[in-house]
Design a protein that fits this description.
The chain is an alpha/beta fold and 218 residues long. The protein has helices at 18-31, 38-42, 49-59, 66-84, 96-105, 119-125, 149-157, 172-180, 209-217, and strands at 5-8, 110-113, 134-136, 165-169, 184-188, 199-201. It has 2 domains: 5-16 and 92-216, HAD superfamily/HAD-like (Rossmann fold), CATH 3.40.50.1000; 18-84, DNA polymerase, domain 1. The chain is built from 9 helices and 6 strands, in the order βαααααβαβαβαββα. The chain has a 6-stranded parallel sheet. Helix 8 links the parallel strand 4 and strand 5. The radius of gyration is 17 Å and the shape is globular. The mean pLDDT is 96. Bound molecules: 6-O-phosphono-beta-D-glucopyranose (BG6) and magnesium ion (MG). 6-O-phosphono-beta-D-glucopyranose (BG6) binds next to helix 3.
């Protein structure tokens, strides 16, 4: 039987950074007189930095020069990184580390599949880098989720076939990307939002070792 590989999204799955992205985007939007709600933020999950700013400007009906656009991208990331640089292992989401330990003990190949250009910095900050056999992040991919590129590339780097990969994702775009890659998708979050996933759990505390075992052996 072929070995099952696991691909993790980062933000909102492994670490609780979604709240930092939200804060930084909200401050940025408000600084140019655009209102920004949690509902809108949901649509930015899994979406690249450039595409996120494009969407915010669209919602606020604003057009900017390229220079101003670049300045705002930089401003958002600078604020975001002030949060990131204060992160500790306490910002790893509940039961993520035991899950990684369990998968490692089973010899499961593990990859990261994230849109973030800050992924390696974040993994290092919370001491998780050594768990990953491959890291595919926003510095590598050219096509944003829901395009399957990020996960297909991660599978290739693990020498796995897509049908032997399972993706953990908290975003709608990410679940769609996993489905488009013909991988099994596990949504981490709320069922109404992540209805397209094969399975949905609110967080890793709901995922038992029996279930993981079942996933690995199917
Ligand atoms: C995704 C997040 O993982 O990464 C998005 O869900 C974020 O909210 C995107 O915009 C890009 O991240 P970064 O760190 O490169 O700005
Ligand atoms: Mg995410």
């Amino acid at each position: 039987m072929a070995k099952t590989s696991i691909i993790f999204d980062l933000d909102g799955v492994i670490v609780d950074t979604a709240k930092f992205h939200f804060l930084a985007w909200k401050n940025l939007a408000n600084s140019i007189d655009i209102n920004f709600t949690e509902q809108e933020n949901e649509q930015l999950k899994g979406v690249s930095r450039i595409k996120s700013l494009e969407k915010i400007l669209q919602w606020g009906n604003k057009k900017l020069s390229q220079d101003e656009f670049d300045r705002l991208m930089h401003q958002k990331n600078t604020e975001y990184l002030t949060f990131v640089d204060q992160m500790t292992e306490d910002d790893i989401l509940p039961e993520v580390k035991p899950t990684l330990d369990f998968l490692k003990s089973k010899g499961t190949p593990i990859a990261l599949g994230s849109a973030s250009k800050n992924a390696k910095r974040i993994l290092k900050q919370v001491n998780l880098t050594h768990y990953f056999d491959a890291i595919v992040d926003g510095t590598v991919v050219t096509k944003a989720k829901p395009d399957p590129q990020v996960f297909v590339t991660a599978a290739k780097q693990l020498n796995s076939k897509p049908q032997n990969c399972i993706v953990f994702e908290d975003s709608v775009a990410g679940v769609q990307a996993a489905n488009a890659a013909e991988m099994l998708s596990v949504g981490i979050g709320k069922t109404p939002v992540l209805g397209e996933a094969n399975y949905v759990f609110s967080d890793f505390t709901e995922i038992s070792q029996n279930f993981l075992e079942k996933l690995l052996n199917q």
